[in-house]
């Protein structure tokens, strides 16, 4: 399985003949190596509704006839307001099987909204992390989150091969809390830091994070690079 990183929190993989993208923030993402007008996807997984995660969801879904997997509120918003036809609403604790593998949403501590044309925030459900089981691997994308102790329970229930964890601080965990989460609670085989350096407020040194992690292996990926299993 090729599992690649594409700036901010965007990851992409192909499994069982299906193409999947998580949090497709491409347009407006100075780190992204992807072309939103060219990429082909069958499924889009959303951790929450903020623009730097929701990103190009509508355009990708409509152009590719892709299925969007996310919170019930995100599903309603996409169906009612954006005319997206294929939506699979889920929620925290729920697990479902898809052509590429399984998806289970878990809690994250953050917020989730978009601002409408009138400047009013639209609530888009609880923020979530996601456990993806595919081709014998367990991927934990924590989404945007602060540190919380139930990460330990999540990892005990789903031993993690690859964890994508935010280190940008300000809006999410910073290096101290993220490394604590990895060392104490999640203990994955491979950790990939995400959600940093895209904006001034979240500039961080990933090598400092790597030095602070004492379990497993940290792989610092440039946009377009893949996890080495």
From TrEMBL:
Respond yes or no to whether keyword Electron transport is given for this record.
Answer: no
| One MF annotation (Gene Ontology) recorded for this entry | hydrolase activity
UniProt superkingdom: Bacteria
Domain spans labelled Metallo-beta-lactamase: 7-195
Report the leader peptide range: none
> Which keywords does this Swiss-Prot/TrEMBL entry list?
Hydrolase
InterPro entries from the xrefs?
Metallo-B-lactamas, RibonucZ/Hydroxyglut_hydro, UPF0173, UPF0173_UPF0282_UlaG_hydrolase
Q: Which family does it belong to?
A: Belongs to the UPF0173 family.
Q: PANTHER family from the xrefs? A: UPF0173 METAL-DEPENDENT HYDROLASE MJ1163, UPF0173 METAL-DEPENDENT HYDROLASE MJ1163-RELATED
UniProt-recorded name of the protein? UPF0173 metal-dependent hydrolase M4L89_02995
């Amino acid at each position: 399985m090729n599992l690649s990183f594409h700036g901010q929190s965007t990851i992409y993989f192909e499994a069982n003949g299906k193409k999947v993208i998580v949090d497709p923030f491409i347009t407006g993402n100075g780190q992204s190596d992807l072309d939103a007008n060219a990429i082909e996807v069958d499924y889009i997984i959303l951790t929450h509704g903020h623009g730097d995660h929701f990103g190009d969801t509508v355009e990708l879904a409509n152009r590719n006839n892709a299925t969007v997997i996310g919170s019930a509120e995100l599903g309603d918003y996409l169906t009612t307001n954006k005319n997206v036809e294929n939506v699979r609403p889920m929620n925290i604790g729920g697990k479902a099987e898809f052509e590429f593998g399984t998806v289970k949403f878990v809690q994250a501590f953050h917020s989730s909204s978009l601002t409408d044309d009138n400047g009013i925030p639209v609530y888009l459900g609880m923020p979530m992390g996601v456990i993806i089981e595919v081709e014998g691997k367990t991927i934990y994308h924590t989404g945007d989150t602060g540190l919380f102790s139930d990460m330990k329970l999540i990892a005990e229930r789903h031993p993690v091969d690859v964890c994508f964890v935010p280190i940008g601080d300000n809006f999410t965990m910073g290096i101290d809390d993220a490394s604590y989460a990895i060392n104490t609670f999640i203990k994955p085989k491979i950790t990939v830091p995400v959600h940093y350096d895209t904006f001034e407020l979240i500039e961080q040194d990933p090598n400092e994070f790597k030095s602070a992690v004492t379990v497993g292996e940290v792989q610092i990926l440039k946009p377009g690079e893949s996890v080495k299993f």
